[in-house]
Amino acid sequence: MKKINKGAKIYLAFVFIILYAPIFYLIYYSFNSGGTMTNFESFTLEHYQAVFEDKRLIMILFNTIIIALLSALVATTIGVLGALAITFMRKPAMRRAILSLNNILIVSPDVIIGASFLILFTMIGMKLGFMSVLLAHIAFSIPIVVIMVLPKLQEMNPSLIDAAIDLGATKREVLTRVIIPFIKPGIFAGFFLALTYSLDDFAVTFFVTGNGFSTLSVEIYSMARTGITLTINALSGLIFVVTVLLVVGYYAINRKTKAAVLGVKK
Amino acid sequence: MNHKLLRPLHSIPYFGWLLLFVIAPILLIVYYSFFDLSGNFTLGNYVNFFTSTYFKLTLSSFWYAFLITFFSLLISYPTAYFLTKTKHKQLWLLLIIIPSWINLLLKTYAFIGLLGLYGPINAFLELTGLEKQQLLFTNFSFVFVSVYIFIPFMILPIFNALDKLNPALIDAARDLGATQWTTFTKVIFPLTMNGVKSGIQVVFIPALSLFMITRLIAGNKVITLGTAIEQQFLVTQNWGMGSTIAVFLILFMFIIMLLTSQKEGAKRNEKN
Amino acid sequence: MKEILRGAALILIISGLLFVVNIQLNKSGSSGTKTSLTVYNWGEYIDPQLLKEFEQETGIKVIYETFDSNEGMMGKVEQGGTAYDIVVPSEYMIEMMKEKDLLLPIDYQQVPNVKHIDPYFLNLPFDPNNEFSLPYFWGTLGIAFNPTLLEGQTFESWDRLWDPSLAQKIVLVDSARETIGMSLNSLDYSLNSTDIQQLRAATEKLKQLKPNVKAIIGDEVTQLMINQEASVALTWSGQAADMMAENENIDYIVPEEGSNLWFDNLVIPRTAANLEGAHAFINFMLDPEIAARNAEYVGYSTPNLTALDYMDETVISDERFYPDEETRDHLEVYRNLGLELLGVYNEYFLEFKMK
User: Fold this and answer.
1) Mutate to test the interface with A, among C27, C222, C248, C274 (most CBs of A within 10 A)
2) Which of B231, C83, C92, C337 is the most buried (most CB within 10 A)?
3) Assigned CATH class of A55-265
4) Considering the entire predicted model, what is its pTM?
């Protein structure tokens, strides 16, 4: 493979700097002994201490993570099955119609999604709380998964499947051994963006939550009137650092095991 | 692909979802759009939509959604391309997504600080001898922050399309004497079209209904259909009018979907 | 495929672990409590220490949920699904909630501490005889400004905002009632005007303000004033107090033509499941010492007269946040004008925004 040139490196560095600038900005102020994200008075760790003392906040954080992970997992599963179903449809018109329907939740403002889900859940007599939030997050994350998986399915060469079937593979094997490995990047993209959707959502969660169940977004938005405390900055800083460590760590371990496996095979 | 690989059982969750969480709410919204404030049946909301106010809102929504999509693509394509050339590309890709997991409102507040008159960007401008610029509450800041939000959504599908690109094809083009630019426009870009299309969909469509940052970053100097819907639902509590605008938003989306998927149909027609 | 299954398993394990931790955390807080009370309030709008004390005193576990707008809150209460026992709406919202029959009357037998509330803040038109609500915090709407950025200019009247020297300096609130209301006030009309002609006139006057308007925003006004991005802002007294705490250059004034007097109130919604607990909570929050501590934590003005004795002298003598009766008599409380007129206000406001 060609080596990456200097211009490309500078470009990427620039993109990363912009992507991370606001995050470093709010982490910087999480060490501010003053009360807001403006004048930096002096260095302090009190906001970090406050995070660990606030049991309610920690519970909300864990709820947020559970909802994000589970909803993204389920949405990815359903989305992949949906994308497969759409691809295998015979009539292009039908395919287009389903795809348009698929995108409705992406175009609808959160307020509408939230309000209509709330009506839906109360209509079927569902208790608002963990389950209703989880269902809602699954529901609004499915379309993004479908959109991420579809191009990979379209790129797939149909003769690949034919070949597999000719070689005597069962339907199940074709699915798990041929198709899924091929569309894997799309599946991962869908999963990670579903995580983003879930973690970012305020309005839908606000409407469908209840009985004391809350997520970080709801908590942060409702602080806006009296001012978001720097405890939230500190918490976000912690989330950020832990996430980066986990991702880098997981990547490193994965590479090592993969390398080991490959080494044996050779 | 016409294989019956999937058992009908497998598609039940997806179609169940469509029915329960998409079609049912849409019917509800269409139903609401025919009622006025006091709960009487009316077509007035639809008449209202065709006043100049909503026409202007629609135009401005489309214009900004277009700008946001255009700049997202402009920045994301090279990013995705260069990323595929890096050594630890999967890791770098994940690092592109991670910032989007930090709460958006918080990041928006950070942008208010960064772009402010006394923020670091203006401090830098002053250092280089330039004058302070009013960055916040401008069209520029609105598009900038929106692009910031949508970049990961554009990069991922394009990256996926580029990553599995057969290097042999590129080499072949090169061997045939194609310049870098022709290789790109004639070989690489067309082959990644599906990924680009996905990216455009997941940026353009939600950009039509952006709200919140229209207020926080644009100071209401940009007003979109999404903002109008939010206002109708929450502040004015006119669910009828809010639903009507939503119905139009969905119609617009259908039209876009039709236009972008035209190619597939057109090609087939040509063959016939 | 293996990698995907491994990932899925990992997610399930992590979620399961966090779930168990959460259950443990929840348990450790509520040892031996039988009943619970669900409180629905704005974020950061109560001293969390007080909730703990209430739990210890009564043995009732408090479940605390937050909202970010009156309208969103009402949607939730109206739709049901959660048994909210205490809610903290603003005054105009109480009228709406009454109209929709969403509130339960307060039983004053169980709230002896009502005697501490300043009678000036009781029996107001939005809730005669305080049948359904008791004031929690109150304040005004006015102009926050930074004289150091304005060559010492002050704002005794609303009309000063139209001064050409303020080009691109003013930050307005993204709310129709407040912004059109200010314009109405500057024309000496009532904030609760239902006269379309007056509203039209106010809107036209507002349009002339446009060259001076830097932005029309929401709660982030606090941050913008503190970091001196904006020099003049239409804002509520509570947020002005937050600004002044961080930037000593900032001042706040209620213009002489009059302005809005607002309240956030404790009410018991129809969804309530623990009536006794709800009354106990209201009575607890009305205790002068508790109210004083809460006011000091939140930084807003308390309507609790006796509580003032427990508070810092410099705070309660500040005319800007505890104005005298003469100033208060110039103020008007928002009335619910009905959805029809609310629509007109917002339509005109949108017209102004799009100009």
Assistant:
1) C222
2) B231
3) mainly alpha
4) 0.91
